[in-house]
Amino acid sequence: MASYTSLEILGIQQAYENMLADINSSVNAPEHLALIDKAYRYCLEKYDGKYLASGKAYMLHLIDMARIAVVEVGLGYISVVGAFLHGMDYKENVSINELREQFGRTVAIVLEDFSQISKLDTEKVAYNSDNFQVMFLSLIDDMRAVLLKIVHRVYDVRNQNDVAPDRLAKYFHEIKYIYIPIVHRLGLYKLKAELEEKLMLYENPAMFQEIKDKIEATHEARKKTAEDFVSRISESIDAEIERTKKNGKPKFAYTVKWRLKSIPSIYAKMKAQNVPFEEVYDLMAARVIIRCALKDEQECCWIVYSAITNLFDPMPERLRDWITKPKASGYESLHTTVKYDDKLWFEVQIRTTRMDDIAETGQAAHYLYKGEKETSEEWLLNVREVLENPGLVSFENSYRKLYKSDKIFIFTPEGDLKQLPVGSTVLDFAYEVHTKVGETCNGARVNGKMVPIRHELTNGDKVEIITSKKQSPRADWLNVVVTEKAKNKIRRYLKEEELKESEMGKGLLQRRLKNWKLPFSETVVEMLVKEFKLENALQLYHQISTEKIDLTAVKHFLTSKLGEEKTEKTVPELIESSKKDNSGETEECLSIGEDIDNVTYKLAKCCNPIPGDKVFGFVTSDGTISIHRVNCPNAKSLQQRYGYRIINVKWCGMESGSSQATVGIYGRDVMGLLGKITKVISEDLQVNMKNIAFNTDKDGFFEGKIVLQIADNESLEQLMDKLKTIDGIISVIRIN
């Protein structure tokens, strides 16, 4: 890369000296100027031969940023050094550690924070602008980083030829949704007006020019009207000054200015009121700036207000009293809108010279008037307060130590934001996206790099979750997540799995006891629970299913307790004596579907059992047998409370195609998926669908529910296996 020419070096040096002259009233301590000069010469060496898109020397951009930071935003020497060095840590052979050693810890913090917010994906900021502003605060330790980013964007819109067109579009997007709201909250109204005008020129140049042309066409008439308005209110104010004189001396002096409202402001009114330019009634504004003693400020502002409203009728709902209760940014002014004639209204702003200075330069001026040294940048201590608390009305007792938020903000691959607690992992984020995504999470790509589910996320990470159909929640996942949402979802899944395994364990115990010719009854189960020091029957069944209890030990215990003679007993009729065991030698189950004259049964609506399902019978209070699936959501309660009323049953002779079942489908929405699903069900397997409903979320995942008329459990399982092979489907489950 070629070096700067001697002529370019001369121009850069001249611009640097001019900048130093501009900031001299604010930054003049020798040690501060020495650090600035060191940063300037460091960058001159590192950026030698670097140019902007326009062909201008890159160093001129840095110098101009430094001037804007001090003169227009009110920052100090640290920010001048930061303006020179911003982005330097991206350069080859330059590390943040080197910058920290050369320029100090504070400068390094500002540069690190600047880099953090520069890496953010702002593509979808329009949908999350409030969250983005909060995220800025949680990302940084020093507010100068955000203010330097604002300075950078101000430079960009003033020097658009220096920026590549694709980057310019991105910058205006950020300006619209992030930086204009922030500068407004900070009271940097001049910069806000400039950014709004540049934004409208970029987004809607034709409308900007149309309004500008109409303003120019009516300029003379409006000038005459404004001068008449100013003359008349001046006469009224003069009379009030004369009336309120003390000892022959006027209480205050004043100046009146008028202006036409900005083009973006006029356009906003046209849209809000849904009227053309000609029908916007309050295009013009006047400002009365008062010179008086500090102790008399409020009184003098209200004297002027009285003088104006005595002459012109005010619009009561447009009165804004920001002198009694200033804005959070420190802004103080008294606003009113008065009627000049039937078609024209004037907005009038009444403020003192002190208030006007604060309105022009925001918080920096506010702290100057409080007697703070600008070089200390004490006003920065309050910037976070203002941004986080828009309802604040005064600066009294509002200092506090800057702190990091307890929240982090994470991007999805589509650019959406998710808010999580500090310390959240990939698995927390997966559950935040969707329960099914969490349950099948197998890792993630964080900022393009593969990481495990335990990886702790940091603010601004972009996360793409990797899922696997073979993955499922485990108990140790509870040690991986920090959010209550994820913990509750994992616990619920584990509990459901425990119930399923308990059902399997119960069936296994029943079969083994039958083979050993031992009874299965409530008494026997209670004996086993006590023997193995468990809390209830569910724990017993679960430990049998998971082989934590050896069935050989169960047999040995029961044989020794019950004795060999008890194994020869027969089982009485279950319905006649439900308290006795139901492990009879000859008739194990009640057959459902046969002509049974003396037994009434019905299929439970809570789980809709179908032929082939593993089921049990429950003897209701009226003697009817209610048939439930073994994994029915009510099974646990029935087993725990009424175990003696549960009987074994089996299917026999049910009419084919007479049962109804519902399946739930979950997956990623892909083109033509619904057609493939209906083809498998209706054409390939010739199953009748009674109802189908699908919903897709903004992340591209869908959940579906299909009600089927199915022959039996075997047919249902065949259909579900077939559906799982369709591309895009993550899981297919039967639901009650």
Give an overview in words.
This protein is α+β, with helices and mostly antiparallel strands and 736 residues long. The chain contains 26 helices and 19 strands. It has a five-stranded mixed beta sheet. Strand 17 (688-696) and strand 18 form a beta hairpin. 33% of the residues are buried. Mean pLDDT is 80; it is low at 364-379, 388-404, 564-589 and 593-598.
Helix content: 40-55%
E-strand count: 19
Ends distance: 71 Å
Q: Quickly give the structural class.
A: alpha+beta
Biggest β-sheet: count, sense, barrel?
A: 5 strands, mixed
Radius of gyration: 39 Å
- Compute the number of helices: 26
The strand line-up of the biggest sheet is 1-2-5-4-3
Q: What characteristic shape results from the CA principal axes? A: elongated
- What number is the mean pLDDT? 80
Unreliable sequence segments:
364-379, 388-404, 564-589, 593-598
Approximately what portion of the residues adopt beta-strand conformation? 15-25%
